[in-house]
Amino acid sequence: MGTRVKRMAHGDTRLTDKRELALERLGRFLGALSDTEVLLKVTLEEGLAAVQATRGTISLIDHRTGTLVMKYAAGAGWTEEKRAIPLKVTEEPGGSISGYVALTGQPYIARDVTQDPHYYPLFSDTRSELAVPLTGRGGKVIGVLNAEKEMPDAFGEQDARVLMAVATLAAVALTLADYRRREQALIDVGRDLSAATDVEEVLQRIAETAASVLDADDCSLFLMDESLNRLILKASKGPLKDQIGHASYRVGEGLTGWVFMTGQPLRLNGVQADPRWKGLYTELEPEQISAFLAVPVKGRSGTWGVLRVVRKKPESERALEKLFDEEDERLLSLLASQVGGALERERMQERLFRAERLAAIGELAARGAHMIGNKIFALKGAIKTLKTLITGPDSEKLFQAVERAIYETEVLLQELRDFVKATHLTLNPVCLNDLISEVLEEQSRRLSHIRFQADMPEAKVWIKGDQGKFRSVLEELIENSRQCLGDFGEIKVILTVDRHPQESRRVRVIVLDNGPGVPEELKEKIFEPFFTSRPKGIGLGLATVKGIVEAHGGTVEERGRPGEGAKFIISLPLLTETKEGND
Amino acid sequence: MGRILVVDDEELAREAIERALTRAGHLVDTAGSEKEAIQKIRETPVPYDLVITDMVMEREDSGLEVLKEALLRDVLTEVIVLTAYGSVANAVESLRRGAFDYVEKNIPGVDVYELLTLKAERAMEHRVESLSLLRRWNRLLSQTPAEPAPNEQ
């Protein structure tokens, strides 16, 4: 109806027809933009119409196999078998014109296919062929559009230009769709992360998303474990999945450790030739890996880990290897920074929550301790007088019991006070080597039945800390071990400086014993205030340790294997190291 | 022997300290609050030799107020501050402001009353020394002809 109105208004029907036709075609393209399948089909149909071809195909390159996958075919004589024939991306004679165009990225006109070295005979009646590339991001060929006719010399330069224009339009739309897919992946990941309840599950989903949008065969995420000073596998799409939580790299070890250590992304073509490569944990057989890309997972406060993706080598020897490009690197870095941000947020929230809870407990404990302390003080006074009034062997015994109870109450109050004061630090440079030696010397005098051992570096290790408070941390951990140790008890203290790259170098103090260890289900609980498995004490010892260590900007965890003894690992920021004699 | 004011809002504690000090031969007066203590310090005809005051009563730093008032009345009055848990910082502050000493109420295994009696004794000695020093100074100054003698009370 609309057509008729316009015709009447203009009069020049030929011109109007052309314009309307162009508009209609543009409309078809625009309408197909949101659906790549439809877009490919429209591109083929419009392309063939534009060069008046009778037969044609549109194919996309599968980089894994190095072949062209036919998406749509038009014209007479197509069968399932013919559609399914894979055309190699190759310059070999007889490998197909489309395959040759896919390789060169240049339009190609075969004026007479019977004389053409590249032609692959699918139809006996085809005489002329025109093929143009679909060129995507970074000038890479993503597919081929081809047109055929039954007469020789059917296509000229003009036709090649027209078909090329149609192909370019389609390629731009496909590229946009690809960008949209990437953008959407970032948005989805962001949403996932902000709504995350189960972090591990989200990390796993991110690995899968990253692999999918980067067209990678596999993706793994390693995160730093400060207690172990190792990068631990947290998520993986493929076969490494079984090793989540176990596979680990030291800082600087292998490509992954290198990326963490330097904070630099790494893009490689094949991994085996690289001198940094260790091949400890690979998603694919090493010789199968062609493209490798790893980026650091960074937050504001430092590097959290490494996110890496790999692509398999193409099955065909002659296929082009699809390497990761700068845009891939940017996308993976963006994904990684989202992960880093989310982890940081989570840790901060957890710390805030803990701090608030501890502050509330501390406030309560302080007030309670003060009030009880006052009453106990009064009670002591009354008992003292009572003792002068009541004498005799029986009462003597009772008084001793009462005084013992008062003593124990005051010890508990002391424990409460230490807990409340855990975070009030007076910071000075503290030499950990000296402090550990002193504490061990004192303790071995006090506990002669326990064998103490120290393993410390030659260089003096300094932290910024509260000498008295940190001493009490060591004493509490030793006391904690002592209570679980039998006659042949051993306690070992190890001091190490982690070879971390950045300014964020850390010190670890590890306290080990040969006691029964801490059961898996209690590993986190033991640091909770008022948790105790012993009849004595109110269970603030390890909570106080945690409070003091965290106030020093550190972490403390129990990482021993049950049955093999307890292993407390304290990680702290390093202040400096001094060689013997220099300090 | 000395005149001592014991300030504590915990009645049992107040009484226990009073008993311990009385037994040691001192004359003991008591107050149950910062307010009452300040009133007694101001109104007593002769300044106390020693004031033993709890730190936390109506306020977190009631002890500091009592200390100030005692020193205003007689700069040579000795003050011992008592602290229960959580007020050591204020106790240290009281030393800076002129208290003789502070005693923590809950030291496991220590007879704090014994300790307090001992410290009271020491504080008393300190006051006697200070007073005699002051007297010597006054005498010295009154014998110097160039300077007009200060008014002796």
SSE string of chain B, helices as H and strands as E: EHEHEHEHEH
Number of helices of chain B: 5
Tally of distinct domains of chain B: 1
Can you tell me the CATH superfamily of chain B?
Response regulator
What characteristic shape of chain A results from the CA principal axes?
Answer: elongated
The CATH topology label of the largest domain in chain A is: Beta-Lactamase
The CATH homologous superfamily of the largest domain in chain A: GAF domain
Our measurement of the CA-to-CA distance between the termini of chain A, rounded to an integer number of angstroms, reads 95 Å
Report the top-level CATH class of chain B: Alpha Beta
As laid out across the biggest beta sheet of chain B, the strand order is 2-1-3-4-5
CATH architecture classification of chain B? 3-Layer(aba) Sandwich
- The count of strands of chain B amounts to 5
- What gross morphology of chain B would you assign? globular
